[in-house]
Amino acid sequence: MKQNKTFVLVAMGLTALAVGIYQSQNQPTVMLNESNGLAQIGEAETRLDLAEKIRPPVSAAIDKKNEPDEKAIQTAFLEKFSSRISQPKGKIQFIDQLIRYLQKNYGAEWQTYFAQWVETIFPEQAELILAMHNTMQTYQQWLIDEKHSLAAMTPDERRRVTWETRRSLFGEDMANAIWQGSLQREQISASLSRLNEQTDLTFAEQAASYRQAIEAALGDQSDSFIQKHQQETIDRFLNTRAVQENLQTMPTTQRKAALAKLRSDMGMDEAAIERWEALDEQREARWAKGMEYMKQRAELDTEALTKLQNELFGDEAEIIRNEESGGYFRFSRPQIIGLN
Length: 340
Fold this sequence. Notes:
This protein is an all-alpha fold. Helices cover about 70% and strands about 0% of the residues. The protein is built from 18 helices and no strands. It is elongated.
């Protein structure tokens, strides 16, 4: 039953991925925008904002009355995307935003205008843009058609098959460019997996290897990525089994210094590092109490256990009792140093 439930959840996730990767024909989505919003581009962005006020009826044709507004919006698209339309990802972003605009203003008839607008805005790139649009629709349909077989695969096998399909449809270079963000994240994840296989590395060597992997994957964007995703980047490293094994064996003073250096190397300022050190100390104290509690609890009756909980955990004792009555024992799970 559990396996069936997991299969259904994975299948649902793949369906969502298929819809989210590319613009569906009935509902617009923002695709391949890993920074959650493109930067505004001067007057071009302003003119695109004006498009919100242009709402021709669904059945309306592009006539002389609408022509001046349409031309202004087409010019805005041109100015916004002209510097990146030659790149695969730029084409994808243009297609997505154009479809969203046309769907909003022409509803179900948006496809009637799509090719015409592409040819008007980027006549020299139109053939390539339309071909990419068609290929992306083919890829989207493949994801939908294969969602059950993909759901049955292991994560590694699913990634392999998905990348093989992307590269078969788009070519290796174009696929790598379109899904650059996914490729980079996979490269960084692979570096963490390798750390688990290299049991002879010190914590400092692990941290250096991780940083090198980020720089190799992101190039000159690595510093800005770390700054933007600082806590996530640190947490992923600390959540790696081999890294935790090193931290668990360190004396407290050495561990404190190692974590401070890691956080500093990842761009944290001194004040932030001090706050994290204070939090680490609170967590260490809580876990020390928790370990003592777990040693004693099995030998105590209900009254004595309640007394011990009150002594060790104070105001939190009632929460712990409620958790345990529901079958959750917080101190039976492993401590992840730097995270909990």
